């Protein structure tokens, strides 16, 4: 997606060979017009998949999921990293390990909002080691719903997330695929 | 805002005389069409205020802030409850005490995204004791920016948040004002 790559090059920053900072438009400040384009692109790629729900995880997944949900005219659900006070025990739970933070988080989704028969598109802002996406897939399976695929705004293709998800048989659609961040240079995997 | 009140009555639930659960459309599952209407309403109420930024707090404030930002065609920024890994030390910090959780959270906003001269609309999903809004106001003041007002999706008017913010001289616009949740009945303050 060209406008996204442009934003990454112009407004993103490689903090190391592993870490890309995009807090100017995606995960702290949000650029509404770019997010609308992201939603249109995801919706276009999954428009024939009879999606009934979008599932993401708080917080940075919410904006791109929201714009996709608007395009597909379906609800979105965001998994919580902490159980909220108004959440009952009627929840699906999964574990998400963060390699960067070296800690495991429990994520929860109410059983009221992902149900048997749902066809779920999982969306997240970043794909690195794939742990968040795998946790969300786990929750969809617990609900006996189906996973239409995983939509990622920015994939760090030098990390193993995509491979892990594809090996389980799921489709991954990433709008920008980062080949390398070495020496502060951001380069992309070019696709047709 | 009638469609919001309708959603609260039909899809919300008074869990006690203090706690309103609206996770079917606002803070777990999100109803995109309702959130677009919420954004249009906030934008309409603040359309003459030369707003340059919207500031909210993760996670449930993001969707209504996003739709307002689209309408006003300006960026939004969400304060983080935890400092993110890619955040430098170049941040504004404030403390937000949660009466319900009985804990204090540090909230942070990068100095890159709220600047002197900005005219900031603060938006949040709920107003109860006002601590989150007061923390966001504190950050805007630290940035030497101005606060155009505070936009709230659901105000629990039997709690002191509105009074506290108004006493500091700020405008509060709440789209639904809950008068009482006693005995499981949701009632509103009616306004013209």
TrEMBL record, chains A, B:
GO terms for molecular function: xanthine phosphoribosyltransferase activity. InterPro entries: PRTase-like (IPR029057), PRTase_dom (IPR000836), Pur/Pyrimidine_PRTase (IPR050118), Xanthine_PRibTrfase (IPR010079). It holds the Pfam family Pribosyltran. Xanthine binds at residues 20, 27, 156. Keywords: Cytoplasm, Glycosyltransferase, Purine salvage, Transferase. 5-phospho-alpha-D-ribose 1-diphosphate binds at residues 128-132. Its EC number is 2.4.2.22. One of its GO terms (cellular component) is cytoplasm. It catalyses: XMP + diphosphate = xanthine + 5-phospho-alpha-D-ribose 1-diphosphate. It is found in: Cytoplasm. Converts the preformed base xanthine, a product of nucleic acid breakdown, to xanthosine 5'-monophosphate (XMP), so it can be reused for RNA or DNA synthesis. Belongs to the purine/pyrimidine phosphoribosyltransferase family. Xpt subfamily. This is Xanthine phosphoribosyltransferase. The gene is xpt.
């Amino acid at each position: 997606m060209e406008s996204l790559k442009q934003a990454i090059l112009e407004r993103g920053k490689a903090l190391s060979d592993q870490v890309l900072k995009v807090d100017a438009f995606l995960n702290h400040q949000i650029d509404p017009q770019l997010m609308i384009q992201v939603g249109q692109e995801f919706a276009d790629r999954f428009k024939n998949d009879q999606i009934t729900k979008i599932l993401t995880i708080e917080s940075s997944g919410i904006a791109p999921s929201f714009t996709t949900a608007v395009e597909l005219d379906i609800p979105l659900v965001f998994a919580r990293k902490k159980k909220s006070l108004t959440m009952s025990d009627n929840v699906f739970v999964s574990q998400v390990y963060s390699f960067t933070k070296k800690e495991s988080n429990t994520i929860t989704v109410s059983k009221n909002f992902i149900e048997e028969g749902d066809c779920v598109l999982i969306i997240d802002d970043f794909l690195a080691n794939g742990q968040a996406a795998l946790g969300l897939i786990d929750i969809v399976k617990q609900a006996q719903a189906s996973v239409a695929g995983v939509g990622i705004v920015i994939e760090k293709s030098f990390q193993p997330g995509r491979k892990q998800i594809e090996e389980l048989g799921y489709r991954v659609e990433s709008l920008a695929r980062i080949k390398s961040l070495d020496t502060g240079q951001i380069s992309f995997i070019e696709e047709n």
